[in-house]
Amino acid sequence: MHTPINHLKQSPRGLPQPDHAASHQHRPWCDSELKNILHRKDIPITFISNPKVACSTIKNSLLDGFDGNVHQEAERRFDLPIDANHTYFCITRNPYSRALSCFKNKIGKGKELFPTVWPPFCKRFGFDPNSNPSFLDYLTALCNDPHPETFDLHYRAQVFNLHHSDITPSYIGRIEDFKHLTDYLNQFKIILLSRNSHKTNALQTYREEVSSEEAALIEQIYALDFDTYKYPKDLKSTTIPNPIQQKQKVSSKYLTLFQMNALNIDVEDMIKIGKKALKKGNIEKAKSTYNRLNSIGINSKSLKRALAKIEIGL
Questions:
Q1: Quick check: is 118 in a domain?
Q2: Predicted TM-score (pTM) above 0.90
Q3: Could you tell me if 236 and 207 are in contact, meaning their C-beta atoms sit under 8 angstroms apart?
Q4: Do 92 and 103 lie in a common domain?
Q5: Full domain range(s) for residue 121
Q6: Looking at the structure, do residues 31 and 107 belong to the same domain, yes or no?
Q7: Structural domain contains residue 288
Q8: Whether 236 and 159 share a structural domain
Q9: Which residues pair with 46 in a beta bridge?
Q10: pLDDT truncated to tens, each residue of the chain (314 aa)?
């Protein structure tokens, strides 16, 4: 259920703001692609979760320790952020070890306690659900797929998981350098509480376990990760890239989606807001709404026509 338009009031940035007396459903309609963006309001801090890269431990830490399913609890307690006026952070991992870890933990009959990755993988890539493919078979299937951006998050490239095109976080930690990550999070009074029920030891063993043929496929599948996050394309290298601290930036597209989520409104509501602004003669607000819709890939032809008529004096 969407927040009724009459429960919204104008914000300085051009989008309405919710009346706190109005009902608000938690994470009301946010796209599934954004569900790994988790904001803890009281600190405040936003964690961009990256499966197979200590996400269970970080979620457990942000929850101050939780005995149950940390993934479900984090989604229940944390929402999307509303703005970029606080710290965003994420963690990356060497693509060789991440690929091996996912395979050892998720790919093959009986590896998952509660199968969520293996059955859809079989359906997509044509594997027998009762089989246990080799690491080479697994990588070959990934390499031959023309749409890697739509992979399951556990084996999708980190640049997609971390929304690289739309979010430049202020801190990118490395799973290989947990001390630096620990010290960084201590600044926010976050104590790292380890939670790893799926340990594969791939961080320690990948140099010996991965063959040169498999390494070549990993380099092809995860080329963007190697380049973007500065991991050397050398299976035997022991180099750990430095953590990155940088100027933070969030795209207008994502800021619009975050604010729409917070207000519990959808595209149809946004179009209504723009048209209502036009009727009241608030051209700037109508233009701002139209531009925000454009930023998320929505071209409201009716709103565009109405604006055009006003601009040419009709």
A1: yes
A2: no
A3: yes
A4: no
A5: 99-148
A6: no
A7: yes
A8: yes
A9: 39, 88
A10: 333 333 333 333 344 443 333 333 444 445 678 999 999 999 999 999 999 999 999 999 999 999 999 999 999 999 999 999 999 999 999 999 999 999 999 999 999 988 999 999 999 999 999 999 999 999 999 999 999 999 999 999 999 999 999 999 999 999 999 999 999 999 999 999 998 777 889 999 999 999 999 999 999 999 999 999 999 999 999 999 999 999 999 999 999 999 999 999 988 898 899 889 988 989 899 889 988 888 888 887 877 787 777 665 54
